[in-house]
From TrEMBL:
It catalyses: L-isoleucine + 2-oxoglutarate = (S)-3-methyl-2-oxopentanoate + L-glutamate; L-valine + 2-oxoglutarate = 3-methyl-2-oxobutanoate + L-glutamate; L-leucine + 2-oxoglutarate = 4-methyl-2-oxopentanoate + L-glutamate. This is Probable branched-chain-amino-acid aminotransferase. It comes from Paracoccus sphaerophysae. Acts on leucine, isoleucine and valine. Its cofactor is pyridoxal 5'-phosphate.
Length: 284
């Protein structure tokens, strides 16, 4: 596998990052994950806009223009012969020197890493036929979830706990209200209306979320951007999640309670189809 490190394309075992890197020592880094279908990037401009925002919020310089990022992504897709798969991109604040909470000088070069992996079943994902089971867990993350940092320990712990409970993922809950999944945005459907938490610092502003809500509105579906409780979710007609790697994934069970007949709902299935069709048509 060929990885990208600070402008170079290297075999993975030759890519080396300093032990003083702030990404390693302090999780002082942001990332993006973009899916690739038929060798083309899905929702790419959205991912680069969010990257620029995350970097801006942390005062890390954006090392590349969007055109340069596009060229790097394309090079990675080509060199690794990705048909269906993912591109991971991470930018850290770079080498922090002696351990210090104070940031290193502003001209410290950020560390840029990209790698890819194949995911042949990205579209024909068998999980989309059966849907996910989710378990609710407390959301004890920090309060800037809108910044896509690599500080992912709690989401990882929550995913492990969900798996231990026989679920596919956790829906995180704060003050009785669902925020989002460990690595995806959460939705319920009631009486035909699609309900998902409004954007704020409480959740990541999903790129797939933005596209799916746009397509839903274009298809004359009702969208309500508001918080919902766990009780409301359990009583919903259907539920689903969105992310760059799962696209639209139906949710069929919440905390052991089956939704509807326990099969993926019709709104969720339709949105998955629309999203795949439209996002592939717009892929670059
Ligand atoms: N919320 C969280 C916490 C996430 O980690 C992700 C995916 N990285 C999402 C939502 C979904 O965002 P996107 O659709 O841009 O992948």
């Amino acid at each position: 596998r060929i990885v990208h490190l600070n402008g170079e394309y290297l075999p993975e075992d030759q890519a080396k990052v300093s032990v003083f890197d702030r990404g390693f020592v302090m999780a002082d880094a942001v990332y993006e994950v973009t899916s690739v279908l038929d060798g083309k990037l899905i929702d790419f401009p959205g991912h680069m806009a969010r990257l620029a925002r995350s970097l801006g919020e942390l005062g890390i310089q954006n090392p590349h223009s969007d055109d340069e990022w596009l060229a790097i992504h394309r090079e990675m897709v080509a060199r690794n012969e990705i048909t269906h798969g993912m591109v991971y991109l991470q930018v850290s604040r770079g080498n922090g020197g002696d351990r210090d909470f104070v940031y290193p000088p502003a001209d410290t070069p950020p560390t840029v890493v990209l790698y890819t992996w194949q995911k042949p079943q990205l579209i024909d994902n068998p999980a989309a036929e059966t849907g996910w089971k989710v378990c609710t867990l407390p959301d004890i993350r920090w309060h800037r979830r809108d910044i896509k940092t690599v500080q992912l320990l709690y989401p990882s712990m929550a995913k492990m706990e969900a798996k231990a409970r026989g679920c596919d993922d956790a829906w995180l809950v704060e003050n009785g209200l669902v925020t989002e999944g460990t690595s995806n945005n959460a939705y319920i459907v009631k009486g035909g209306a699609i309900i998902t938490r409004a954007l704020s610092n409480d959740i990541l502003h999903g790129i797939t979320r933005a596209a799916v809500l746009r397509f839903a509105r274009e298809a004359q579906m009702t969208v309500e951007e508001r918080s919902f409780t766990v009780e409301e979710a359990i009583a919903a007609d259907e539920a689903f999640i969105t992310s760059a790697s799962a696209f639209v994934m139906p949710v069929v069970e919440i905390d052991g309670v089956r939704l509807g007949d326990g099969a993926p709902g019709k709104v969720s299935r339709r949105l998955r189809e629309i999203y795949l069709e439209e996002s592939r048509a717009a892929a670059i």
